[in-house]
Design goal:
The chain has 225 residues and is an alpha/beta fold. It is 37% helix and 20% strand. This is AroM family protein.
């Protein structure tokens, strides 16, 4: 099969975690990863993508493993420019791996997969009748998460556990708190969470755990068959 895929990220994302799901269908050399900010220094990022006072922002992880607030409009502008380049290079599928809802992104020829459009309704259909508990890395994401999960029939509960700077016991403790509050399905909605985090929670707490980046990768893989 000659299908080609480009994975597009805003900042640093552990793409290697989802590659095995994709390389079941196409060779790794048919997959390209483009990161808008991932190879830039913090100084350069702030100079090019820093937000003006009052401007809407999103968070991105840089290669120093620290988050930064950047201008949403500037990120959307330059992501669209990259999408147009990839489109002209004849990629069949463009997979956007990002936690925030980004607007006005369009591909003319390639199939553009945006997790924020796919994951919430997918999770809602999977967990119908169950109480969801969502694990996020930092409190600053809470507002965006509350907007994202409005599609669920009941408002989810939230707890914090950081996949980069936190520990496994802290992750388990967050899951235990959610279960104590009544959650019976957990969602790990951060691109920094890996399969071993999900496996740890499922084995320790004996509850279903959904990992958003794996869900979208599996959907993308179906398009490669």
């Amino acid at each position: 099969m000659n299908t080609t895929m480009a994975i597009l990220t805003v900042g640093v994302v552990p793409v290697k975690e989802v590659l095995p799901l994709l390389t079941e269908h196409i060779r790794e050399e048919q997959i390209t990863h483009k990161s808008l900010l991932g190879n830039m220094s913090r100084k350069d990022v702030m100079e090019e993508y820093g937000a003006r006072p009052g401007e809407e922002t999103i968070l991105a992880l840089l290669n120093d493993n620290q988050l930064v607030e950047v201008s949403r409009s500037k990120i959307e502008r330059d992501l669209q420019a990259i999408i147009e380049v990839l489109d002209n290079q004849q990629y069949d599928v463009i997979l956007l791996m990002n936690t925030f809802n980004l607007r006005h992104l369009v591909a003319r020829n390639a199939m553009l997969i945006e997790p924020q459009r796919i994951i919430p309704p997918l999770v809602a259909s999977i967990v119908e009748g169950h109480q969801v508990g969502v694990i996020i890395p930092i409190e600053e994401l809470l507002r965006a998460q509350q907007e994202k999960w409005q599609v669920l029939p009941s408002e989810p509960y939230y707890e914090l556990a950081n996949p980069i700077h936190g520990t496994d016991p802290e992750l388990i403790a967050a899951g235990e708190k959610l279960i104590a509050r009544g959650a019976d399905v957990l969602v790990m909605d951060c691109l920094g969470f890996h399969q071993h985090h999900r496996d740890l929670l499922q084995k320790t707490l004996d509850v279903p755990v959904l990992l958003s980046n794996v869900l979208v990768a599996r959907l993308a893989a179906e398009l490669l068959v």
